[in-house]
Design a protein that fits this description.
85 residues
Length: 85
């Protein structure tokens, strides 16, 4: 089984980073990667985790600003149901 090269470009979005991270984890858990590829996958995974954490921190800071620097606990009743089309 030929292994695709581990990407090193910055992810375009949080969702893309999570999808790539999920794929890397699956490859590593399969036990099919050679040692060098496993190390490269681990390094890339570490980069993706840092990227995702930074994105989540950025969004959390935006929420704090929107909520007047006072985070409110999320409650299901705060969500407005969408009208059926």
């Amino acid at each position: 089984m030929a292994n695709p090269p581990v990407k090193s470009a910055a992810p375009v979005s949080f969702e893309q980073a999570m999808a790539e991270l999920d794929k890397l984890v699956a490859q590593m858990e399969s036990g099919q990667l050679p040692l060098d590829a496993s190390i490269a996958a681990y390094q890339r995974g570490s980069e993706l985790v840092k990227y995702c954490a930074a994105q989540l921190d950025r969004v959390e800071n935006q929420v704090k600003v929107l909520e007047g620097d006072m985070l409110k606990p999320f409650a299901a009743e705060d969500v407005q149901p969408e009208a059926d089309a």
